[in-house]
UniProtKB/TrEMBL annotation:
<dbReference type="InterPro" id="IPR029058">
    <property type="entry name" value="AB_hydrolase_fold"/>
</dbReference>
<protein>
    <recommendedName>
        <fullName>AB hydrolase-1 domain-containing protein</fullName>
    </recommendedName>
</protein>
<dbReference type="Pfam" id="PF00561">
    <property type="entry name" value="Abhydrolase_1"/>
</dbReference>
<feature type="domain" description="AB hydrolase-1">
    <location>
        <begin position="19"/>
        <end position="120"/>
    </location>
</feature>
<dbReference type="InterPro" id="IPR000073">
    <property type="entry name" value="AB_hydrolase_1"/>
</dbReference>
<comment type="similarity">
    <text>Belongs to the AB hydrolase superfamily.</text>
</comment>
Amino acid sequence: MGIVEEAYNVGVVGSGQQVLVLAHGIGTDQSIWKYLVPHLVDDNRVIMYDNMGAGTTNPEYFDFERYSTLEGYTYDLLAILEELHVKSCIFVGHSSSAMVGAIAAVTRPDLFTKLIMIAASPR
């Protein structure tokens, strides 16, 4: 496990060719996906992570300036994808993470084939 995977409590399940990335919104953690994931793992490789400050992330990594905008969370997402050697994915984002996915897709369109936005927060 790499430093990024550890910092964001990254979980990877399934072994399919298609990569799905599930990102939770503010006030929750990756456990919101626990009922959905079993239906996805047969055909997909599913990546889940906790946004910094949520779940079991280490509070020592939290930087108020970095996370004062969605770009800080976007850099985290891109670092996770890089560490896991993801070449292409379908991104599913809830609330603020939907907007993080949109920013990431504009920044690195080569990494995203689809964005699924659930109750996306306005930016």
